[in-house]
C-alpha cells in the first residue's frame, strides 16, 4: 500500500502511517479500525512508530489497544485523535506519545515502565458529564519511569493521577515520575479535582508547570497539586519546584511525604476562606506508620498562608514571600498529642496578614529568625495573640525567636505587639526565648501574663501588661537573664576549664536554658546529647555529683502610671 504522504521522521523510523491502514481523517468517518489495526501490526513486529499525519481521526469511542515499544507521533496540533477513550494498559513498556492532539477520556497504565508523553494536547471530550471514574489524561499504577513534558491538559479531573484508585495500596509502587513544562487547566465539572494528584510515588519531580482554574463543582476541594490521602497513600523524595498555580481553591496540599521539597513556586488567588496556598493535613505515613520528616519550603511567592500541621519532623520554611494571608506562616494540629518537631522559619517576608504574621501552635523545638513582617492584624482581631507579628500560642515549647523585624507601615495598622508568648506548654515547662528583634510602630514584646512565670528570658526583654491600671505600671523588663523552673534531684560532674557537664538526667532541660552548677558557675546550655551537656562557657571548677538547678531571671517593673 502506497504512502499517502512522505515524511522524513516516518521514513527514518521505517514504521507505519495510519492512512496506510485505511484511516480517512475527515472528523466523521470512523477510523478506529484503522488505528487498532496499525497498532496490532506494529506489535506483531515487536514495536515501531505509528505516524499520524495532519487530519481529524475519529476513533468513535472504541477501546484501543497498546503494546510495548510503540511510538505514536504526529505533526503537532493538527494531528487529532478524536474520541480516543483509551483504556487499561497492563504490562507494557517503552511507550512514547509525541506531537499530536487528543479529544478523549482516560488512560490507565498498570505495571508499566518507561512512558513518555511529549507535546500532547489533551481535552476531555465531555467535561460536563464525567463518567464514573472520571476523566484523566494519565493514571499510573505500579509504574516506573514516567515523563510528561510540554503537554496541554484541559477539562479533566486530574492531569496525572499516580495511585491505585480501584483497590488501594499501602506500598509505594510508582517510581521516577517527572511532570515538567505542562499547562493544566479547568476542572469545574468534577468533585475533588487536582491538576496533579500524586497519591503514591517515590522520586517525583513536578517542575515548571502552569496549573490554573482548578475548582470543584461541589464544595471547595479543588487543588493545584495534591498528594496522598490519610489511609493508603504516601510519597517520598518528592520535589515540587518552579510551578505557577493560579485561581485554584487550594495551591499545594500534602498528606504524608518525607524528603519533600516545595521551592520557587508562584501561587496566586487561592479561592477558599482558609487562604491555604501551601498546606498539609499532618497525617502519619500510612506506608511506614511513622511521622513524615525532612520538609523544605523555600523561595516560594504566595498569596495566602503557608500552613503546616503536626505529625511532621524537621521542617524548614525559608526565603518565602507571603502576602495577603490569614496567618502568614502557621503551624497547628487539631489532634491531641500531635506535635510538629524541629521547625525552622527563617528569612521570610510576610506582608498584609489579616491576623498574626507567624503563629505557632502544637510545636516544639522551633527557631524563628531573620523574618520581616509588615502590616499584621488587618482584620482588627481583639485576641492578643492575633495582634502580634509573631505568636507562640498553645502547646509550644522550646521556641527561639530572634533577629526578626515587625512593623506596621499602614496608617490604619492594627498590630500592637512584636512578639507574643502565651504561657501554656504541654511538655514540661514552656521555654520560649526572644532576643534581638526589632519592632516599629508596635510594642516589642507582649504577654498575657502580668508577671513572667515560665520560659527563658534575655536581658532587656520587655513585657507590656495586657491590662495595666491607674497607679500601676506599664510592664516589666528582664534585668538578669535566666530560666524559670525546677530541676529535682539533678546532679552533675565535669572538669575545670571545659564546657562539658555530665548530668544524672537531662529530660527536663533544653538547649538555651540557664543553669547553675554548684561550685562551678552559671552557664547556658548549647547542646544536649543523652546525659552529656555542652555549655557555652567553661566550668570554673572541677565538680563531681553537685546539684544542678535552673538560674531564674530577674524582672523589674517600669512605666509608672498616674493614679
Concise structural overview:
By secondary structure, the chain is mainly β. It contains two helices and 55 strands.
Structural description of this entry:
This protein is mainly beta and 563 residues long. Among the domains are: 304-448; 488-554, Elongation Factor Tu (Ef-tu), domain 3 (Beta Barrel), CATH 2.40.30. The strands form five sheets. It has a 30-stranded parallel β-sheet that branches. The longest helix has 13 residues, at 32-44. It is elongated, with a radius of gyration of 30 Å. Residues 1-14 and 424-431 have low confidence and may be disordered.
Provide the low-confidence segments as ranges. 1-14, 424-431
Q: Proportion of β residues? A: over 45%
What level of helicity do the residues show?
A: under 10%
* Multimeric organization: single chain
Terminus-to-terminus distance: 106 Å
List the defining traits of the structure above.
3% helix, 2 helices, 55 strands, 563 residues, single chain, disordered N terminus, mainly beta, 14-stranded parallel beta sheet, 50% strand, 30-stranded parallel beta sheet, Elongation Factor Tu (Ef-tu), domain 3
Chart the SSEs and their pairings.
Layout: H1 8-13, E1 16-17, E2 26-30, H2 32-44, E3 48-52, E4 55-58, E5 70-74, E6 79-84, E7 88-90, E8 93-104, E9 106-110, E10 113-124, E11 136-141, E12 144-149, E13 152-154, E14 158-162, E15 175-180, E16 183-185, E17 194-198, E18 201-207, E19 210-212, E20 223-227, E21 235-241, E22 244-246, E23 250-254, E24 257-263, E25 266-268, E26 276-280, E27 293-298, E28 301-303, E29 305-309, E30 313-318, E31 321-325, E32 329-332, E33 340-346, E34 349-353, E35 358-360, E36 363-369, E37 372-374, E38 388-392, E39 396-402, E40 405-407, E41 417-421, E42 432-435, E43 438-440, E44 443-447, E45 456-457, E46 462-464, E47 473-480, E48 482-483, E49 491-494, E50 500-503, E51 514-517, E52 521-529, E53 532-535, E54 543-550, E55 554-560
Amino acid at each position: 500500500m502506497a504512502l499517502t504522504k512522505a515524511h522524513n521522521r516516518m521514513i527514518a523510523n521505517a514504521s507505519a502511517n495510519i492512512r496506510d491502514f485505511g484511516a480517512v481523517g475527515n472528523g466523521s468517518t470512523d477510523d478506529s479500525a484503522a488505528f487498532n489495526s496499525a497498532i496490532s501490526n506494529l506489535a506483531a513486529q515487536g514495536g515501531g512508530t505509528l505516524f499520524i499525519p495532519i487530519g481529524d481521526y475519529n476513533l468513535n469511542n472504541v477501546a484501543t489497544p497498546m503494546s510495548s515499544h510503540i511510538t505514536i507521533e504526529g505533526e503537532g496540533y493538527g494531528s487529532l485523535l478524536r474520541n480516543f477513550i483509551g483504556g487499561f494498559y497492563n504490562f507494557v513498556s517503552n511507550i512514547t506519545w509525541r506531537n499530536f492532539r487528543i479529544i478523549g477520556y482516560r488512560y490507565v497504565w498498570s505495571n508499566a515502565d518507561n512512558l513518555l508523553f511529549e507535546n500532547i494536547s489533551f481535552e476531555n471530550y465531555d467535561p460536563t458529564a464525567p463518567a464514573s471514574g472520571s476523566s484523566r489524561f494519565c493514571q499510573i499504577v505500579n509504574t516506573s519511569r514516567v515523563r510528561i513534558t510540554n503537554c496541554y491538559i484541559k477539562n479533566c479531573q486530574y492531569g496525572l493521577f499516580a495511585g491505585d484508585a480501584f483497590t488501594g495500596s499501602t506500598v509505594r509502587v510508582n517510581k521516577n515520575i517527572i511532570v515538567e513544562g505542562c499547562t493544566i487547566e479547568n476542572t469545574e465539572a468534577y468533585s475533588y479535582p487536582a491538576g496533579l494528584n500524586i497519591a503514591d510515588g517515590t522520586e517525583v519531580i513536578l517542575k515548571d508547570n502552569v496549573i490554573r482554574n482548578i475548582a470543584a463543582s461541589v464544595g471547595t476541594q479543588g487543588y493545584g497539586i495534591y498528594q496522598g490521602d490519610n489511609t493508603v497513600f504516601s510519597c517520598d523524595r518528592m520535589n515540587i519546584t518552579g510551578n505557577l498555580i493560579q485561581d485554584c481553591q487550594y495551591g499545594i496540599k500534602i498528606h504524608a511525604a518525607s524528603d519533600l521539597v516545595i521551592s520557587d513556586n508562584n501561587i496566586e488567588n487561592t479561592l477558599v476562606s482558609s487562604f491555604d496556598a501551601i498546606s498539609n493535613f499532618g497525617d502519619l505515613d500510612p506506608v511506614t506508620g511513622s511521622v513524615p520528616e525532612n520538609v523544605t519550603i523555600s523561595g516560594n511567592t504566595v498569596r495566602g498562608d503557608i500552613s503546616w500541621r503536626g505529625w511532621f519532623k524537621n521542617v524548614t520554611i525559608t526565603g518565602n514571600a507571603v502576602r495577603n494571608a490569614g496567618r502568614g506562616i502557621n503551624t497547628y494540629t487539631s489532634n491531641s498529642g500531635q506535635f510538629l518537631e524541629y521547625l525552622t522559619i527563617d528569612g521570610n517576608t510576610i506582608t498584609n496578614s489579616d491576623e498574626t504574621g507567624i503563629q505557632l501552635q502544637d510545636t516544639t523545638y522551633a527557631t524563628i529568625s531573620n523574618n520581616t513582617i509588615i502590616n499584621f492584624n488587618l482584620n482588627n482581631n481583639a485576641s492578643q495573640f492575633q495582634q502580634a507579628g509573631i505568636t507562640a500560642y498553645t502547646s509550644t515549647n522550646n521556641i527561639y525567636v530572634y533577629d526578626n523585624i515587625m512593623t506596621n507601615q499602614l496608617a490604619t495598622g492594627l498590630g500592637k505587639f512584636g512578639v507574643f508568648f502565651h504561657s501554656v506548654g504541654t511538655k514540661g515547662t514552656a521555654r520560649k526565648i526572644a532576643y534581638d528583634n526589632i519592632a516599629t510602630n508596635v510594642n516589642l514584646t507582649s504577654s498575657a501574663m502580668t508577671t513572667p512565670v515560665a520560659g527563658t528570658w534575655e536581658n532587656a526583654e520587655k513585657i507590656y501588661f495586657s491590662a495595666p491600671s491607674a497607679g500601676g505600671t506599664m510592664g516589666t523588663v528582664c534585668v538578669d537573664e535566666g530560666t524559670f523552673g525546677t530541676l529535682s534531684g539533678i546532679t552533675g560532674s565535669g572538669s575545670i576549664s571545659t564546657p562539658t557537664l555530665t548530668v544524672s538526667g537531662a529530660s527536663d532541660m533544653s538547649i538555651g536554658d540557664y543553669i547553675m552548677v554548684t561550685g562551678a558557675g552559671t552557664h547556658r546550655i548549647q547542646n544536649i546529647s543523652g546525659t552529656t551537656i555542652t555549655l557555652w562557657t567553661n566550668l570554673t571548677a572541677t565538680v563531681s555529683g553537685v546539684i544542678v538547678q535552673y538560674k531564674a531571671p530577674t524582672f523589674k517593673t517600669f512605666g509608672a502610671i498616674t493614679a
